[in-house]
From TrEMBL:
Catalytic residues (positions): 342, 429
GO molecular function, one term: catalytic activity
Gene this chain is encoded by: cobQ
Organism placement in taxonomy: Bacteria, Bacillati, Actinomycetota, Actinomycetes, Streptosporangiales
Pfam families: CbiA, GATase_3
NCBIfam families: cobQ, PRK00784.1
PANTHER family the UniProt entry points to: COBYRIC ACID SYNTHASE (PTHR21343:SF1), DETHIOBIOTIN SYNTHETASE (PTHR21343)
Biological processes, Gene Ontology terms: cobalamin biosynthetic process
Protein name as catalogued: Cobyric acid synthase
Domain CobB/CobQ-like glutamine amidotransferase: 263-436
Length: 505
């Protein structure tokens, strides 16, 4: 399947807003095509996310693209997300290019990167189009962010440069989907509008016959077709891209096997990263997972998790300001379980020396583990393997902080980290996705918390993830015009599309 230019067909999935469903729709399209034997790959030119993963070739990319690669049945690579921005504050982000950090930039200094990043992104897309049958590209935010259009490399800037047809996804559950679809198109300049082939309505619930008049009107007003209306289905997407989609309560989907629920409180840090570490707990029967921000919310939890952070020192200060630091120390004093992962593990130390991320120098930690942390300039990226509780563990690590344990301390090893009493710490992300390890860890947590809780013996997280990806592929097959999608891929960007002025036709 080659375009006239000799490259594989490609399509851009844009959205009216962040969290409109671009990642989900792209993953569904990937799964649908892969099940037909098409060699398909995902692509996102520029991603802003604190949820990332390490690929087999040692690159850091957005977590959503890794899961889209899983939907395609292939391993993720650096080319699938050549530019990753990891916010460390409201004004600056770490810039990761081809899987490696190249520096920090704010909104103004980032402009100096733009031309280079545009070339990197187009090269990566060309690489994927040369080695696959189809490439499905995901946009970022909205293509109608007109203040950013001049330097855009992720939305219409990419579509124009690579001559990609564009589908715009709108979230009807938020309300105002027709205004969002029409307004997005109308704000684009004519040359950009020419590439927009049509729309996808996402998260619909209700009577389809009541929606039809609106679909007819949007077709008439814009001259574009609606390629599908995807129904609302709860709990389909793991590995969300950012905290906009982070549920406060991700409680048990099935009742516990024992007489009690195991209550897990995950501290929702301001710069929380890789909170997808918690996904495996949310599919365990009887495990009630809640994201919390106040001291009283951790008081009765059986397990508290301090997750990863892109701003360890700043988020540690936030813990103290909120009174959560004292609450965690008090819990540990009572022997109640606490798990720190990556940045959360660093916060458990006696001291942190950071001249890299926050440049705050020496900072006092929570003192719950006999460790100290030094921030290194070089970022550690890896896919380690190990054992814990007699079970194999595969994981990944992404961190600047290097943890050193006091050699005189009486601690036990835990994955790559340490354990002291009911306090565990590790830099490894994804460890809880290993079924045997997860069950063994939860059994010990339950015993220490005095809970009559029995883990399900057959929970298979990898199978559950695959099942959800299959469900996304089913949504595409059942609720989208797949024949029209195939024509769009074969024929490329549509010609002669009408221009929609900002004031309407």
């Amino acid at each position: 399947m080659l375009s006239e230019r000799g490259a594989a067909p490609a399509l851009l999935v844009a959205g009216t807003t962040s969290d409109a469903g671009k990642s989900v729709v792209t993953a569904g399209l990937c799964r649908w095509l892969a099940r037909q034997g098409v060699r398909v790959a995902p692509f996102k030119a520029q991603n802003m996310s604190l949820n990332s993963v390490v690929t087999p070739d040692g690159a850091e990319i957005g977590r959503a693209q890794a899961m889209q690669a899983a939907a395609c049945g292939i391993e993720p690579t650096a080319a699938m997300n050549p530019v990753l921005l990891k916010p460390g504050s409201d004004r600056s982000s770490q810039v990761v290019v081809r899987g490696r950090p190249v520096g920090e930039a704010d909104a103004l200094t980032y402009r100096s990167y733009k031309e280079r990043l545009r070339e990197v992104s187009l090269e990566a897309l060309a690489e994927l189009r040369a080695s696959h049958d189809v490439v499905l590209c995901e946009g970022a935010g909205s293509p109608a962010e007109i203040n950013l259009r001049a330097g855009d490399i992720a939305n219409m800037g990419l579509a124009r440069a690579a001559d990609l047809p564009v589908l715009v996804v709108g979230d009807i559950d938020r309300g105002g989907v027709f205004a969002a679809l029409h307004g997005t198109l109308a704000l684009l300049e004519p040359a950009d509008q020419a590439l927009v082939a049509g729309f996808v309505v996402n998260k619909f619930r209700g009577a389809r016959e009541l929606l039809e008049p609106g679909l007819d009107m949007i077709r008439s007003l814009t001259g574009r077709d609606v390629y599908g209306v995807l129904p609302w289905l709860d709990g389909l997407w793991l590995d969300v891209e950012d905290s906009l989609a982070l549920s406060v309560d991700r409680g048990p989907s099935r009742p516990p096997l024992g007489s009690q629920t195991l209550r897990v409180a995950v501290v929702r840090l301001p710069r929380i990263s890789n909170f997808t570490d918690i996904d495996a707990l949310t599919v365990e029967p009887g495990v009630d997972v809640r994201f919390v921000t106040a001291p009283h919310e951790v008081a009765d939890a059986d397990l508290v998790i301090l997750p990863g952070s892109r701003a360890t020192v700043a988020d540690l200060a936030w813990l103290r300001e909120r009174g959560l630091a004292d609450a965690l120390v008090e819990r540990a004093g009572r022997g109640l379980p606490l798990l720190g992962i990556c940045g959360g593990y660093q916060m458990l130390a006696r001291g942190i020396d950071d001249e890299v991320e926050s440049r705050a120098g020496r900072v006092e930690g929570l003192g719950l583990l006999p460790t100290r942390v030094d921030f290194a300039v070089e970022k550690t990226l890896g896919r380690p393997v190990g054992t814990a509780y007699g079970n194999p563990v595969r994981a990944y690590e992404i961190h600047h902080g290097v943890v050193h344990v006091d050699p005189s301390a009486d601690t036990e090893p835990f994955l790559d980290g340490h354990r002291l009493g009911a306090v565990w710490g590790t830099t490894w992300h994804g460890a809880l996705e290993n079924d045997g390890f997860r069950r063994a860890f939860l059994r010990e947590v339950a015993a220490r918390a005095g809970r009559d809780f029995a883990c399900a013996p057959d929970t298979d997280f990898a199978a559950e993830r695959s099942r959800r990806l299959d469900a996304l592929g089913d949504l595409v097959e059942e609720h989208m015009d797949t024949a029209a999608l195939l024509r769009l891929l074969e024929d490329g960007a549509p010609g002669g599309m009408p221009v929609v002025p900002p004031g309407g036709p």
